[in-house]
Amino acid sequence: MKISPATSYDDMIKRRIRRDPEFASELFNGAVSGLFEGDFRYALRTLRCIVSAGIGFSALSRSVGISSQNLHRALSDRGNPTIRTLNRILSAIADALGVSRPSSAMLAS
Fold first, then answer.
1. Domain boundaries, given as residue ranges, for the chain
2. How far apart are CA 96 and CA 20, in angstroms?
């Protein structure tokens, strides 16, 4: 894959997510780990990339019953989603990727 110097990091990651499901799954697991380790900015940015490149915000919105605008806000750099919202987002992404869902109990700890 040829990458121009103007290609952003997020665009490069999104391209890889689209063509490599295993990479997307590992990235998702890394985002979940980031949440547990307190690296929320990384986790939210990574989840945002996965959603943008894969499931899409409209489909995620329908899946979790939260407006697309609120999902964008929750996964933004300044996002502060509730545990309930985060659990719904993570479950929908896990389902879309075909990976196991993180436990709600784990998220609440």
1. 9-108
2. 14
Q: Render pLDDT for 27-50 as a digit per residue (tens, 0 to 9).
A: 999 999 999 999 999 999 999 999
Buried b (16+ CB within 10 A) or exposed e, 29-38: eebbebbeee
Residue 3 has a pLDDT of 55
| pLDDT for 4 beyond 70 | no
Average pLDDT over residues 42-60: 94
d(CA 5, CA 79): 29
Residue type, 94: A
Separation of alpha carbons 52 and 36, rounded Å: 23
- Can you tell me the distance from the alpha carbon of 40 to that of 42, in angstroms, rounded to the nearest whole number? 5
108's tokens:
């609440």
